[in-house]
Amino acid sequence: MTIETKPAAKKAEKLVAVKGMNDILPPSVPRTDKLPDSALWQWFETTVRAVLARYGYQYLLTPIVEPTALFVRGLGEVTDIVEKEMYSFTDSMNGDKLTLRPEATAGIVRAMIEHNALYNGPLRIWTVGPMFRHERPQKGRYRQFYQLDVEALGFAGPDVDAEMILMARALWRELGLVEGRDVRLELNSLGQPDERRAHREALVRYFEQHAAALDADSQRRLHSNPLRILDSKNPALQALIEGAPQLLAFLGEASLAHFGAVRAVLDAVGLEYRINPRLVRGMDYYNLTVFEWVTDQLGSQGTVCGGGRYDGLIEQLGGKPAPAVGFGLGIERLLLLLQELAVPVPGSAPHAYAVVPPGTALPTVVATLESLRAAGVNVLQHAGGADGPGSMKSQFKKADASGAQFALVFGPDELAQGKVTVKDLRAGVQVLQPLDQPQAWAGSLKA
Ligand code: ATP
Ligand code: MG
After folding, report:
1. Comparing 260 with 391, which gets the higher pLDDT?
2. Which ligand has the shortest distance to the CA of 283?
């Protein structure tokens, strides 16, 4: 007779997230990297919603996957994103060429054209969601990252450019950041296409004289898109770029007037900024005003928010010509900055923690908790394992750890009287409250 031995069970292989793509976890889950937790994340989103509502912006959502051609046409072929950062693939079902969106503006413009959204006049809109770029992951730079994206479509005047910038400032203030200290505004004007052409010729002449000093990327771009050289992050090129002809010197009267009008508003509200003639932004679609909010606290990933005017994009993507302006804000970077500065986050602890008895009283307890919740009280109910809720002592420990102000103690003595003990865990005082009228004392838990 042979005895069959079972092979030792093999432990299933551990699967991990794709490199450069992060989990955003609840604050109670410890993590070794410094990524922001979901409480900070939610506070940011709530604040954004409130600030954007004050300016009358409406929310929208567009797909994460778009036709590859949208980005190639929208962002420009000779850009970092299109040349080397896009997650593109072929739909195996029908052969369509698709891309995970690397930024939000092109998709939004596509959607607005598709739905003839500007028919009734201009639009102010915003969205939040993940973007994908195949970059080298590091602090503040990921392969999936989240952006807040705000756009004003159909407005030609400098008033909206200033509104965009001031809206970001309102957000900083609401989040406890100080402009000028924690985040600074950099501003430039890219003028109009004909002005850029003249500047481009001067730029090519200049870089041709210094061609030997250029890196491979820049040499390739010298004739295809020399403006992009100004955007290079290669430290070895910075001095050369510093000496290049400046676009501002090529701007005509109308472009200068537009720039002047934006600056006049910023000056009037006392917002300080630095004019940075090298600020050209990473996409080809920008014209006139461009801006970035930068910080010194995050190393080389110092741009938390960038935007500008893109009057040609809607037409370029097949729509009826209409001007537009917008910005994108990197949410991880901004939250890292808030962490770095130890900005206090409003608490996310529940109002109350319910300490429950084992056995048959549970339905009564739950009915009371449901009434409290209906009255707007945030109650965390202790839930146990298969053997019941566990000892009172261990439940009280959990109540303390939850950060709740109150413990609701549904002990057997209280229940026998039709009551519950409401214990203030911070002040140590306690009172008995009736189980059958939770509405009468719900308010005291929220104070
Ligand atoms: P950078 O110069 O840092 O690469 P960018 O000019 O490519 O930024 P935009 O396309 O203007 O960035 O996107 C707007 C914002 O989104 C940036 O200012 C930044 O805060 C954030 N962002 C861009 N790329 C990443 C990334 N890979 N990971 C995290 N945040 C990012
Ligand atoms: Mg980039």
Report:
1. 260
2. 1
Distance 444 CA to ligand 2 centre (A): 50
**Pocket perturbation via mutation, ligand 1, pick of 71, 145, 230, 281 by most ligand atoms within 8 A of CB:** 145
Which ligand 1 atom is nearest residue 292's CA?
18
pLDDT digits (tens, 9 = 90+) for 316-335: 999 999 999 999 999 999 99
At 442, list the tokens. 């719900």
Residue nearest to atom 8 of ligand 1 (CA): 303
| Equal CATH topology for 38-191+251-340 and 352-446 | no
Q: What is the pLDDT of residues 137-186, one digit of tens each?
A: 999 999 999 999 999 999 999 999 999 999 999 999 999 999 999 999 99
Q: Ligand 2 centroid to 106 CA: how many Å?
A: 16
Task: Give the integer Cα–Cα distance in Å for 75 and 78.
Answer: 8
pTM (two decimals): 0.90
First to last CA, the chain: 75
3 state SS for 3-53: CCCCCCCCCCCCCCCCCCCCCCCCCCCCCCCCCCCHHHHHHHHHHHHHHHH
- In the chain, where the domains are located: 38-191+251-340, 352-446
Kindly give the number of the ligand 1 atom that is closest to the alpha carbon of 327: 14
CATH classification of 352-446 is 1.25.40.10, yes or no? no
Superfamily of domain 38-191+251-340: Bira Bifunctional Protein; Domain 2 (3.30.930.10)
The pLDDT confidence band at residue 223, using thresholds 50, 70 and 90, is: confident
